[in-house]
Design a protein that fits this description.
The complex is a heterodimer of chains A (about 120) and B (about 110). Chain A is mostly beta strands and about 120 residues long. Chain A is about 0% helix and about 50% strand. Chain A is built from no helices and eleven strands. Chain A starts with a strand and ends with a strand. In chain B, strands 2, 4, 5, 9, 10 and 11 form a six-stranded mixed sheet that branches. In chain B, strands 1-3-8-7-6 form a five-stranded antiparallel sheet, with no helix packed on it. The chains are: A mainly beta (about 120), B mainly beta (about 110). Chains A and B meet through β5, β9 and β10 of A and β4, β5, β9 and β10 of B.
Chain lengths: ~120, ~110
């Protein structure tokens, strides 16, 4: 599996501000995803980060709130915009490695713990 | 709406026993199934994937899949205190648009008692 890093690992932000989270992979990957894990909850997919095109967002998530970039096959960013305390969560990137189209395994980065005050 | 259900636990088992974790899913088109282990404060770690009905074994872990019953389970043999974690079940469809999106259950917290 790939080695995935995220920056920052944690941050405390004031409401109304924005934070950009970076996800770096040590090898080229076909697909990258962004998830949110709210306190005591499971993971919810925010969007699929598409290389060279706009991200694909899940129901309940919009580009204005969570803009995503993916300039190449090893890097992606997620911005949490105009933050409110409800955005306090762990944000995780994940990747699908391998060239096999049928394989669906995803591997997660260490996560970014965001607290909004 | 796709749902993945797990008993939240906590499930307590003595060291050396078999821990049995269960998961049911609502979307019949689901074809790919995964078990992740998440230690407190850490990110999920993939421990098993299963695509076909039946059993799949990897070391002390066995995943069991029954698509007709929409049921997937994880058995941990010879449970160790280091197995204490939350186990997340995840499912995905196998083809078509959106086929890589994982839907997660809320997880079962396992506690292995020394």
């Amino acid at each position: 599996s790939a080695v995935i890093s995220q920056k920052p690992s944690r941050d405390i932000c004031q409401r109304g501000t924005s934070l950009t989270i970076q996800c770096q992979v040590d090898s080229q990957v076909t697909m990258m995803f962004w998830y949110r894990q709210q306190p005591g909850q499971s993971l919810t997919l925010i969007a699929t980060a598409n290389q060279g095109s706009e991200a694909t967002y899940e129901s309940g998530f919009v580009i204005d709130k969570f803009p995503i970039s993916r300039p190449n096959l090893t890097f992606s960013t997620l911005t949490v915009s105009n933050m409110s305390p409800e955005d306090s969560s762990i944000y995780l990137c994940s990747v699908k490695t391998g060239t096999s189209g049928w394989a669906r395994e995803q591997y997660f980065g260490p996560g970014t713990r965001l607290t909004v005050t | 709406q796709k749902e993945v259900e797990q008993n939240s636990g906590p499930l307590s088992v003595p060291e050396g026993a078999i821990a049995s974790l269960n998961c049911t899913y609502s979307d019949r088109v689901s074809q790919s199934f995964f078990w992740y282990r998440q230690y407190s404060g850490k990110s999920p770690e993939l421990i098993m994937s299963i695509y076909s009905n039946g059993d799949k074994e990897d070391g002390r872990f066995t995943a069991q899949l029954n698509k007709a019953s929409q049921y997937v389970s994880l058995l941990i043999r010879d449970s160790q205190p280091s197995d204490s974690a939350t186990y997340l079940c995840a499912v995905a469809p196998n083809s078509g648009a959106g086929s890589y999106q994982l839907t997660f259950g809320k997880g079962t917290k396992l506690s292995v008692i020394p």
